[in-house]
Amino acid sequence: MAGVELLNLSKSFGSVEVLKSLNLTIQDGEFVALVGPSGCGKSTLLRIIAGLEEETAGEVYIGGEYVNDLSPKERNIAMVFQSYALYPHMSVEENMGFNLRISGISKPDIKARVQETAEILDLVHLLDRKPSQLSGGQRQRVAMGRALVRNPDVFLFDEPLSNLDAKLRVQMREEIKRLHQRVRTTKIYVTHDQIEAMTLADRVVILNQGIIQQVGTPRELYQNPANAFVAGFIGSPAMNFLPATLTSDGTSSRIELEDGSILVADKRANQPSDGKILLGMRPEHLHLSAEKDEHSLKGRVDLIEPTGAQNHLRVTLAGKSTTVVDNSLTEVELGEFVNLKIDPDNLHLFSQ
Amino acid sequence: MTLTTTPNEERGTQMRAPARRRSTLRIWKKRLMPWLFISPFIILFMVFTLFPLLFSIYLSFQEWNPVAGLSSMEYVGLYNYQLALTDPWLWKSLYNTVWLAVVSGIPQHLLAIPVAYMLVSAVRGRLRHLYTATMFIPFITSTVAVALIFFSIYSTNAGILNQWLLALSNLPVLSWFFSWVQDAMPIRWLTSSDLLKPSIAMVVIWKYTGFNIVVYSAGFLTVSRDLYDAAKVDGCSRWQQFWHVALPMIRPFIFFAVTLTIIGNLQLFEEPYVLTQGESGGVAQSGLTASYYLYLVGWQWLEMGAAAAISWILFLFIAIATGVHFYFNGRKGLGEDR
Question: Is B338 in contact with A130 (Cβ distance < 8 A)?
């Protein structure tokens, strides 16, 4: 097992700078998810750690060792690919034992280790099959088995669940979580699905346009997003943003929306020079309220989406369409004006 | 109970009759239209493929000199087949055909596979297309033109091949390796029974390797980059990536290209014909292939019946060779093991 450290890591493809001077330390045995929208550089970062892509600048350390000049094999990493990348002409057993075979390990040892790993992943009855004879979930387990069998220092996962249907994805997510509880090797997991990242990882790294936006535990990212991008990326449904003007005095802050309505935040916020801010409110923090006060806003209901356990309402607030998750299942009518109350602690203020 | 028709119903029936006729016409049009569209092919196929095929079967049981007209055709039963199978020239031509198929066939693939792999893995974009196109040129060049150029290359006294060998034997570093050249000169590439077949094989290799490079390049391009990455992570060297991943992945392409080579090489005609100047397969018939012999029997000796019998023997020979290839390599070659 080993930790991973990235120092001033940059990568450019021609004139396009994909990663911009990244610094990141991943502790030994930690499960870290790299999350971000398509094209943010997360897969490139993973491939650089794997040694499949060469960095333009910066240093990569695995287990304290400088590995920039080492091949993927010498780095002792294992990788699970989005497409599984199983060799179609080999059986499950041959796929899993291939890297051991290349390393020159004896046949009985390979068989024993493949058998042991197959038992962990419930693959024993599939060992003789070819990848084409397996379902998506089974292929995914074989891909993980192939990585597990070599006992690597670091596991790298490149969007491993993207090709699975929604139900299987949830099931495989649980399996990966269980696997990590059992084999506490350092794991770096790339995904664009924030739910996957939040549920699996000890810490989540949010990337956008080649820059790390924030690193933290899922709870930290949800409660204290560093900027509007992180706030909008984490949480489902996504956070609502309303342009506003902030004025602060010694004890509290006044937030004035574009339609003139006012919200009072109890804590004092840093006021930008021009006072222009983005007010962020999570849909699940907005509650329907009978009375209007300084912690509530008035809006018109435009759409009601019942999901069973809750209703998702689209409400126009200060001229902007916002989402409200109503757990109380209150009966509301389309076009009705409602008061939406929010705890001042749940207000997020970002500079515009 | 009796059924009576009201005037209205009668009128309805009368009105429905033309409608039914129209619908029958529409159905027939619908049925005939596809046949109409494919009829040009069917007509051409029947005239130029099916008829000659059936006629050649008929002909193989006749003795016929085409110059004497159709009336000279005479039924001889299996005589043509008996004659062909006891003809030493036929057996010699079949031996030459197999020899050339193997000696000119195997190197084509042994050269084309690594070259295609290097082109796909190491050369990018336009440069790769340029290289591939250059190597493909021999395939699209007229065989007669190619054979004529090689005829001059192989020329005993003025041929560039002998001149080069002489020059190499005079070079200080290489002279020990080419010391035999001085004694062997002049090397008679096309007029020595030992060298004629290898000379023909060289032309065939040169001409068809480019085609196989294109086929294999297409094959290597279908291998996903993820598989190479997985192999790198598994610790494979470049050679191991080629041997354990790329090569098994292009098995269907190898199967296809080898099938074409077997069928093509067993019908080899133009190269040996031009290089031996059409003179009965060269010295001691060492360049006589089955197709070449077939041509001699039919068009020089004007024994069309015997030629037809030989053509069916050759067909059977090619079918068996291809069948053996399918039997041993078909399952893996067609990707059924995946």
Answer: yes
Q: Give me the amino acid identity at A70.
A: L
Given an 8 Å threshold on Cβ–Cβ distance, is A79 in contact with B230? yes
In whole angstroms, what is the distance from residue A40 CA to residue A264 CA?
36
Sorted by where each begins, the domain ranges of chain A are 4-233, 240-351
The CA distance from A191 to A184, in Å, is 20
Task: Establish if B325 touches chain A: CB-CB under 8 angstroms.
Answer: no
Strand pairing report for A253-257 and A262-265: antiparallel
Architecture of the domain delimited by A4-233: 3-Layer(aba) Sandwich (3.40)
Per-residue pLDDT of chain A (352 residues; tens, 9 = 90+): 689 999 999 999 989 999 999 999 999 999 999 999 998 999 999 999 999 999 999 999 999 999 999 999 899 999 999 999 999 999 999 999 999 999 999 999 999 999 999 998 889 999 999 999 999 889 989 999 999 898 899 999 999 888 888 888 888 888 889 888 888 899 999 999 989 999 999 999 999 999 999 999 999 999 999 999 999 999 989 999 999 998 877 677 888 898 888 888 766 566 667 778 899 999 999 999 888 888 889 999 999 999 988 999 999 998 899 999 999 888 899 999 999 999 988 999 888 7
Name the CATH architecture for the domain at A240-351: Beta Barrel (2.40)
Asked whether the beta carbons of residue A73 and residue B227 sit closer than 8 angstroms, the reply is no
Which of B224, B234, B240 is nearest residue A83 as measured by Cβ atoms? B224
CA distance A127 to A91: 7
Contact A83 B229 (CB under 8 A): no
Suggest the residue from B223, B234, B239 to mutate for an interface test with chain A (most A CBs closer than 10 A). B234
What ipTM goes with this model? 0.85
